[in-house]
Amino acid sequence: MAPGGLFWWIGAGVLVVLELLSGTFYLLMIALGCVAAALAHLAGAPADVQFAVAAVVALAAVLLLRRSRFGRRTRKEASRNPDVNLDIGQTLAVPAWHERRARADYRGAAWDVELTAGEPEDAHLYEITELRGSCLVVVAARHSNTRTTTA
Asked: d(Cα 55, Cα 113) in Å, to the nearest integer?
């Protein structure tokens, strides 16, 4: 194998390894461009054609990835994202409601609590779904084995 072809195979291999470290599919798509260029080299294409093939295949693969469900990232609001706010998903006990609002002890402090529309007021155990400033937005806890966070 000529040294020019080896360049494309090594490039593809390095990109695949980097892809495994990054967790996205984009580097894999660029690696496909390198593989296409290596195949063009084997077919006897000159260097400028190899680079063009690599660029076109990589660009097409990235665009296809962006249009697929794997290329779309759904972004959650920080107030509802458990990766940003560790309180999301925690449970707390609410002793009494007044017009779908309450005060409850959570993490050693009194918090305002708001019940999500359509949720029952008689559940006693609630799960935090959102944080709006110092107000916890909750739904009735669906699990019987959840851990209750109090004082």
From this structure: 54
CA distance 74 to 14: 29
Domains of the chain: 3-67 (no CATH), 76-151 (2.40.50.140)
- pLDDT of 53-69, one tens digit each? 999 999 999 999 888 87
Would you list the DSSP string of the chain?
--HHHHHHHHHHHHHHHHHHHH--SHHHHHHHHHHHHHHHHHTT--HHHHHHHHHHHHHHHHHHHHHSTTT--PPPPTTT-TTT-TTTT-EEE----BTTEEEEEETTEEEEEEEPTT--S--SEEEEEEEETTEEEEEE---SSPPBP--
* Residue-wise pLDDT tens digits, 77-122: 777 777 778 888 899 999 889 999 999 989 888 899 999 988 988 8
Of the CA atoms within 13 Å of residue 13, those in its CB half-sphere come to: 6
Please tell me the pTM assigned to this model.
0.50
